[in-house]
Amino acid sequence: MYDDSLEIIELELAVLIRRITSATSHKKVGHLDRSAYLLLHQIATNGAAGVKALAGEFQLDISTVSRQAAALEQKGLLYRIPDETDGRAYSLQITEQGLTELKEDKHLRMKRVGEVMRTWTDDERQTFAILLKKYNQSVLIE
After folding, report:
1. Helix or strand or coil: residue 47?
2. Among the residues of 47-121, which ranges form H helices?
3. The total number of structural domains that make up the chain
4. Apex 129 CA angle, 135 and 101, nearest 5
5. 45 and 112 share one domain
6. For the segment 83-110, what is each residue's pLDDT rounded down to a tens digit?
7. Which of 3, 24, 98, 131 has its CA 20 to 30 A from that of 107?
8. Which secondary structure element, helix H or strand E, spans residue 6, and what is its range?
9. What is the pTM of this model?
């Protein structure tokens, strides 16, 4: 049932994860860690969202997202919008400072990816982008 391509993909994913882990522990790109970057990106792209919705999007516990959001709120990168119908509920919105840091980090990350892929053709980058997005969408837990 398994073919050579699955064996190669499995191994290359393990190598990719290992190299990314190693690179991020030695040479951090930008000021935001991965969880902060993704949380800010999600809100900046899709608008204000509640902790429950964000937890669902990232397949994390509500408590994890709540803790991450609280840290970003403390740094002035997010703020709470109270829910008018439920006094306990709120949505999170990105601040101007959060947008600025997100844009700076995105620029640095894209620069780094560009350096790594500098010898790739436009077609190779486009194909990889399409397939990587498809892969990430396929691994969503239902």
Report:
1. coil
2. 51-58, 62-74, 96-116
3. 2
4. 105
5. yes
6. 888 878 899 999 999 999 999 999 998 9
7. 131
8. helix 4-26
9. 0.84
Q: Are residues 15 and 58 in the same domain?
A: no
Q: Are residues 9 and 52 in the same domain?
A: no
CB contact at 8 A, 65 and 51: yes
Measure the CA angle with vertex 82, ends 79 and 87; round to 5°.
140
Residue from 47, 48, 51, 49 nearest 60 by CA: 51
> Same structural domain for residues 64 and 98?
yes
- Torsion sign, CA atoms 92, 94, 98, 103: positive
Is 21 in the same domain as 42?
no
Say whether 120 sits in a helix, a strand or coil: coil
Is the pLDDT score of 129 beyond 90? yes
